[in-house]
Each structure stands twice: as C-alpha cells, then as structure tokens.
C-alpha cells in the first residue's frame, strides 16, 4: 500500500505512485487546503509550476484519514485557501448541470453531487467565519469539524461528481504567471468572483462578503497581480480557454476579450 501524508502536492504524488505501481492507496491530508484528497484525480503541473493536466485514476483512494487536530494545526492561510476551493464547488456544479456538461469522469452531474455541492456552500456561509476565528485561537470546535468535512469531503464529492467550470479554468490559467504566488484555493476564489459576475449570479454579493470576512482574494491586486500587463492578461485568457472541458461546463458564454475585462473588473 502507498500512504501519502501531507498537503495537496504530496497527495497528488502519492496518487500517481499508487496508480503506476498498481497498489492500494491511503491518503492522510495534513491540511484542509484543497478538495482533492478523496478524489480519483491527480493534478499534474509542469516543472515551472504551470498547470499541465488532470490524471484520471482508475479509482478513488482506498482510505482517507483526516485527524482534526493535525489539520487544525496547519497554517491558517492553507485552511482559508481550502474554503476558496470549496466555495466554488456549488457554482461550478450548478453551471455544469445548466450547461448539460460533464463531471470529472465524463458523466452527467447527478443529484447527489449537486446536494453535496450545495451543502458545501451552506456550510461555509454558516461556519466559515466562526471556524476561522476558532482556528486563529488555536482551538477546534464543531464549526472547525464541519469546515474540515466541507473542504475535504463535501467539496471533493461535489467537484468530482458535479463538474468544474470557469472558476477552476481561471485558477489553472493563472498558474502560467510565475509571479502569481496564490495558493490554488485563493486563485479559485478569484475565479469564482469572475464566474459569478459573468453569470450575473444573485449570490455574488454574499460570496464577495464571505471572501472579505475570511480573507480570500477577489481582485487581481489582492492576488498580487495589480501590475499585470495587457499581454500577460491575454496569455492568461488563452491558458484559461485551454481548459476545454471546464469551459464547456460554463453556462454563460464568454469570449477571451470579455474574460480579460471581467478579470480586471473583479
Ligand atoms: Zn480545486
């Protein structure tokens, strides 16, 4: 058996090793910084850190072990980034369903996935701020327990079976910029704001307020990209559109030009 203990990159490596070695896999995330641990997907990046592709495994991990005390002791920024990843899950799954798109395994997003994704969003709105406050004080609580379950399990089921859309395409696109130091979930939060603006979604204000309260970036400046050139923005837009399946799951139509405009407005 392969046992992966660590953050997102370590777990992605453990998944690849188990896949090619054809061994059972146990993953133990030490942070709730993204929603990959439960999924049958390993995200591959180029050596320069830019997004390469998703490697689809034959099955989900055989065992996922999460110790609340370990995850709660991770740097707070990592858990907040996990909230960003989980925040987008419902809206991407909703978009995928509306666009008659496909989930991460090529099927239609089922009702269970949409329910899990919705529960994910509701949990964040109910518990996210309280959980951050408790973690800051170095203590666990029911809010922290629910947040960890949300970031790792609900969001994992929600994205894998519900499908990804524009928010993740943008997060992946931003990885071409070496100067972008955002964690995955932080870039997803920014991508979500752009997606909701494009869709003219009624939840936009609630999402913006949530991001502000927990400290997730919603603008290029907050991502540390306030000085980004027009050329780099166009390159990012091109990279976003290379995420073809995610883009096909986006219910609102968008051009590269419109995307650049929305990213600057966000
Ligand atoms: Zn993600």
Q: Overview of this structure, please?
A:
GO terms for molecular function: alcohol dehydrogenase (NAD+) activity; metal ion binding. Belongs to the iron-containing alcohol dehydrogenase family. This is Alcohol dehydrogenase, iron-dependent. The protein is mainly alpha-helical. It has two domains: 2-68, Rossmann fold; 75-265, Dehydroquinate synthase-like - alpha domain (Dehydroquinate synthase-like, alpha domain, Up-down Bundle), CATH 1.20.1090. 57% of the residues lie in helices and 9% in strands. The strands form two sheets. It has a three-stranded parallel beta sheet with strand order 1-2-5, covered by helices on one side. It has a two-stranded antiparallel sheet with strand order 3-4. Helix 1 (8-21) links the parallel strand 1 (2-6) and strand 2 (25-29). The longest helix is centred in the middle third of the chain and has 26 residues, at 111-136. The radius of gyration is 17 Å and the shape is globular. It binds zinc ion.
């Amino acid at each position: 058996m392969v046992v992966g203990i660590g953050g997102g990159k370590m777990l992605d490596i453990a998944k690849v090793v188990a896949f090619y070695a054809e061994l059972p896999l146990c993953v133990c995330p030490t942070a709730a910084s993204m929603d990959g641990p439960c999924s049958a997907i390993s995200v591959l990046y180029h050596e320069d850190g830019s997004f390469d592709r998703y490697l689809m495994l034959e099955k989900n991990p055989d065992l996922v072990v999460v110790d609340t005390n370990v995850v709660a002791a991770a740097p707070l920024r990592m858990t907040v980034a996990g909230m960003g990843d989980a925040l987008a899950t419902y809206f991407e799954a909703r978009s995928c369903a509306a666009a008659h798109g496909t989930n991460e395994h090529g099927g239609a997003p089922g009702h269970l996935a949409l329910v899990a994704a919705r529960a994910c969003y509701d949990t964040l709105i109910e518990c996210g701020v309280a959980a951050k406050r408790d973690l800051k004080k170095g203590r666990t609580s029911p809010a922290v327990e629910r947040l960890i379950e949300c970031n790792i399990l609900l969001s994992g089921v929600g994205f894998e079976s519900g499908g990804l859309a524009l928010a993740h395409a943008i997060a992946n696109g931003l990885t071409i910029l070496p100067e972008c130091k955002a964690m995955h979930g932080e870039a997803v939060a920014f991508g979500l704001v752009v997606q909701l603006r494009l869709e003219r979604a009624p939840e936009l204000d609630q999402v913006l307020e949530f991001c502000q309260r927990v400290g997730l970036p919603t603008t290029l400046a907050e991502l540390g990209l306030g000085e980004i050139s027009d050329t780099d923005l166009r390159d990012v837009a091109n990279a976003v559109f290379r995420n073809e399946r995610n883009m096909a799951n986006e219910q609102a139509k968008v051009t590269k030009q419109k995307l650049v405009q929305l990213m600057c407005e966000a």
